[in-house]
Amino acid sequence: MLAHFFEEEGIPTTQISLIRKHTETISPPRALWVPFELGRPFGAPGDSIFQTEVLQAALKLLEAPGGPVIEDFPAEAPVSEAQNHIFACPVDLSVEKIDDNNVTGLRETLNNEMIRLRPWYDLAVKNRGRTTVGVSGVDLDLLGDFVSEIIYGDIPENKHKDLPFGYTLKLAIDDLKAYYNEAFTAQPGGVLPESRVLDDWFWDQTIAAKVLFAIKDLCAKSDDAGLRLVGNLLIVPMAKDKNST
Amino acid sequence: MARLEQLPEPMRYHIAKLVCPTFESQPWVEGPRLNQRRIALVSTAGLHRRDDRPFTFLSEDYRIIPGDIAVNDLVMSHISTNFDRTGFQQDWNVIFPIERLKELADQGFIGSVADFHYSFMGATDPMKMESMTRELARLFKKDRVDGILLIPV
Questions:
Q1: The dihedral sign for the CA sequence A104, A107, A110, A115
Q2: 3-state helix, strand, coil in chain B (%, to 5)
Q3: ipTM score here?
Q4: How far is A168 from chain B (nearest CA, A)?
Q5: Mapping DSSP to helix (H, G, I), strand (E, B) and coil, where does residue A144 land?
Q6: Which are the contacts of B13, defined by CB distance < 8 A and separation ≥ 6?
Q7: Gap from A95 CA to chain B (nearest CA, Å)
Q8: Taking chain A, what is the end-to-end CA distance rounded to the nearest angstrom?
Q9: Fewer CB atoms < 10 Å away: N or C end of chain A?
């Protein structure tokens, strides 16, 4: 859709398409459909050669003789056998236990789990020279407390004065997920697990996920419309939400 | 995996039922050879600099991404939980291929890379981004951009 407006203003466009059916309907001037998962429009993290192939294919459409044109990228994102393995987390998180019927101690358990991952997170930051954690403005050392506070009926200080608390909570939850995934992917071996493997690990095996499910349920029942929105849509992905329809 | 039929339910259902607009006109603008073009990236991944205002629910505005942005300065605040973020966490080029684009400029595949790139947050109805998009077009012209790569997430 944005392509239509840019072209009307006189600037040529090309684009990546992730959902071919939508692109066929909208019919932008030039589009390269790629068979990659949502969230990875250039296919493969850490594979500069493959990324360049996708980028070149999309840019070459700017020289197409006429349109609209939708071209299909011919290759799947490369996946090694090792990437599909169920990885063992470098830290055994099973030592952190909680009683599903009793949330007392949840905050401490979450913080303990986070501390056990901290060396791997620090290594990830050092190796990559970056982190995606921190958008919420909540200090990493206080992130576990901030996220879990609502379980105890408390509302922590909102670090983003220009945002409703519910939205800052959502950003902090995104920070928490990123912290776990960045830590996990710093493990030895040099193989980046498939996103599905990471997703299963986080949502099925961590205390953090249990905390987030509890927060989701609390938010969904809140009197605050913003928190209800966060609880219903913005914490747990549809694929992991048993109540999602 | 982005084949619609392979998406897990209920996400497949929700994406399949999204209503996409159609346009009566079909604008088509041509330009010079690729090796003479100045290229800009426009993402809808909700990307921004670390100190920028995060995107919020149904944000219609954009954030500026300078072409010389440092790797640790680009973060994401897209509201959706239903796409992979671990690729971006591992390598920003999988969503925002600025390093690959600069390499193509160095190799002469494209002419040059724009000074500024931009990001929207794609959970918002794109029709509500029309005004901002037309504003960006004027900014791109000042930057002598004659090729835009639009990147969804």
A1: negative
A2: 30, 20, 50
A3: 0.94
A4: 9
A5: helix
A6: none
A7: 25
A8: 28
A9: C
